[in-house]
Amino acid sequence: MRLSTPSWYEDVSPGRGVLPPRAWYARSDAAALPLDGTWRFRLSPTADHADESFAAEGYDARDWGEVTVPGHWVLQGEDRGAPAYTNVVYPFPVDPPRVPTENPTGDHLRRFDLPDDWPEAGGAVLRFDGVDSCARVWLNGRELGEFKGSRLPHEFSVGRILRPRGNVLAVRVHQWSSGSYLEDQDQWWLPGIFRGVTLLHRPEGAPGDFFVHASYDHADGTGTLRVVCDVPGRVTVPELGVDVATGEPVTVPVEAWTAETPRLYAGELATAGERIPLRVGFRTVRVENGVLTVNGRRVLFRGVNRHEFHPDHGRCLDPATMRRDVELMKRHNVNAVRTSHYPPHPAFLDLCDEYGLWVIDECDLETHGFQRLGWRGNPVDDARWTPALLDRAARMVERDKNHPSVILWSLGNECGTGAGLGAMADAIRERDPSRLLHYEGDRSCEHTDVYSRMYASHDEVDEIGRRADEGPAARGALPFVLCEYAHAMGNGPGGLAAYQRLFETYERCQGGFVWEWIDHGLTHPVHGYAYGGDFGEELHDGNFVCDGLLFPDRTPSPGLAEFKKVVEPVRLGAARDAGAVRVTNLRDFADLSDLSFTWSFQVDGETTGSGPLKVPVLAAGESAEVDLPEPPEHGPGHRPAGERTWTVRAELARDTRWAPAGHEVAWGQLPVSARRPPAPAHGARAVVRDGRIVLGPGVFDARTGAPLTLCGVPLAGLRLDVWRAPTDNDNGSARRPDERFGRLWRELGLHRMRHRIDAVSVDRTPGEAAGDTLTVLTRVAPAARDVALRTAYRWTSDGTRLRLAVSVTPEGEWRLPLPRLGVTLGLPATLDEVVWFGGGPGEAYPDTREAARLGRWHGTVDDLQTPYVRPQENGARIDTRWVELGDGTDRLRVEGDPAFWFAARRWTDAALDAATHRGDLVPGGSVWLRLDHAQQGIGSGSCGPGVLPEFGPLPAPAAFAFTFTAPGREPAAS
Length: 974
What we know:
The structure is a single chain. The protein contains eleven helices and 61 strands. It is mainly beta and 974 residues long. The chain has five domains: 8-202, Galactose-binding domain-like (Jelly Rolls, Sandwich), CATH 2.60.120; 210-284, Immunoglobulin-like (Sandwich), CATH 2.60.40; 287-565, Glycosidases (TIM Barrel, Alpha-Beta Barrel); 571-671, Immunoglobulin-like (Sandwich); 726-965, Distorted Sandwich (Beta-galactosidase, Chain A, domain 5). The strands form 14 sheets. Strands 50, 51, 52, 53, 54, 55, 56, 57, 58, 59, 60 and 61 form a twelve-stranded antiparallel β-sheet that branches. The chain has an eight-stranded parallel β-sheet with strand order 32-31-29-28-27-35-34-33. A seven-stranded antiparallel β-sheet has the order 1-10-9-12-6-3-4, with no helix packed on it. It is globular, with a radius of gyration of 32 Å.
């Protein structure tokens, strides 16, 4: 009997036949031939390494199918397998370095001719920028070699094999390899040649590699440039008057590169064989006195983690999509990116250089699946794997070393600890001591220059900021960064503002990176967007793959709007003088000369005046109090009645590469007068007849006290309501079982509360000569439990308006906060148009409210819905003074005392709770209007901390009221 032996793709080595890694650059005067496009393709269910005849010259592949390169074959045909999503676990048995026999294998063929002007002299290099998970390559029947390292470049020397016509490139790609054990990175498993393939001419005397060293001395404003090249040449930077030999340093006055001021100098590296354009950015990165500095100044990361993702193409991104991502980041005040958890397409780093983003460049390395095995067999602590780890580190550093945006190298993510990581750190430091090293898994910080954590709670961040945390002494002297925080899964993340206060309070706390940039929802013919399990995976982690600040189509979520507001680089707040605004420049480097400021004045949410505001050019870190003009008058000689508010905006004064002039960077609101409570509505007498009670414009069932019509609008089901369809953050994570409120609420029975009517009465209003109060006493409680909410509804009217006063008294021992507290009622589906005065334009909850601007807003019921990939609680508008629903003929207005949340949708909360995909939500015959006195916060519990205590209080006695009117028929406002 013959036992199978490991094949090349199961060997722990990184590969063979490939050239040493080198710097990437987008263009030069050397010829290049992209080989992207349509390739012939054959898919086999197993890795049948005996059949390599397809790579031989003359092979007839006319009966094969086709595949687009770059691309993933599982996204290009129903008969080519399917994507699979896991967060931590490997989707195959863990037996390193072996992989399953069921190893989908894609054979690719590409025929090409050389251009007529392809130079005859010199050599050529065949470059692969990304292949998942490994590749074996032949050209014109000759084997070139093989490689692993999916998100890393690999090159082969092919000059002697090329011919002018009829070249045949053959590539075999296996979905699984030993490299898969190093790439367990919380994303879809997507095999294929997903980045470009290029043939590059290498003239005689062309550089093999070069390293641009460009440091900045903030003390005297000079930069020192030295370009090291493996062949002689000259470096010119005309704008700086630089013309020096390679290897020779030159120091000149320069403007520094920062993420706020991304100053790049155009230069050129010229050798005997090639001229390569350079974009030089001068900057120096250090840790000084326990603080991470660039150019001598502390930086604060307002960052995001970014996987590469497109809903149709997986990890295959085109240049326009990458540029769109960077522009969206800049427009939302993002200043930093962690390239989780692998180096991105190198063109993305070009954009970071150009637009200005700090970058933590992360190695293509994660072994998270070993954690559940107690880290037994972890490759980073097995010397046999160290060459593969060093190869991955080298390919990242060499490729990306000339990007000024890259200021930290990251060894990888969630790999535990081991000697292999130390070897990587030593090699990177030796090659590039100009940058800092990051790795979150090294709690000792033996191999890192920053103390990095994921999802530390607010209390822990406060402790770390005070340097009161216990740990190794060396760690205590390092700057602190949250490489992941504020898990943006579904509705959320909550608690951003509290984190930002800590970052701004403690010098050591230098910000963090929200997890993550975009939802990884793949386009699906049934579900719209698919998540884990939608492709029949044996193991999967559900919609945990949809945890971004963008929806899959790159529409910003409410979470991104909140993040933009929380981290805005200019703060516009209250001053000591009530007639002024305090302007604070929160930038690290730039002054405010690129911004213009405006004021506007609102009365009851409507703007009555606006104009420019003269703000001094404040340097980074400076503040000033700026006088506001006299408020606009409302009529001759008096100020307007109503609730009055100043709004001050900071906008781009001129066009930039990422947004046009007038783009809003920051805003603030200053209240001038308090809100007036609604006028009383009482005095009308109730009439009881034919089993109904008529009170002003309301008709009620005399037996139950339930309203049947209000102000001529038919109603259904008005009653106290505490349930909401749990958010992903409500559902929490197994790491914090006491914060898994979705499950705990359901176990308590809050989704199926019973309503008992204890009394219905019409009573004379105390202290009035005339007028009645309709009182309905109820007990609202879950079955099988001894806790309840005693609830009283008291209705009064002045003949035109109806007022509902609700009082709630908890009974029993409540150990959980309520999801929400308010009333729900059903309205006719025709009442589709919504206008409100309150917070907007988007949804907001107690700990996601910073982006809610007080104003008068309008939209449709459909506009109010937030399309989370997995449906859940959404769409609540905060601080509502009044809301009005209508259809052009009938209208119903609700005014609150105090201000309230409202939500309106075409399905019940029960239907929303039951839905698993957007397509499950089918409009019914009603609009369900929620009027809420209280809401539980959102938190970040799907992976991080839950709701802060102040945003999740236990049930307590509560009283609130709503006044219902039919606009146009109520008396004039007092």
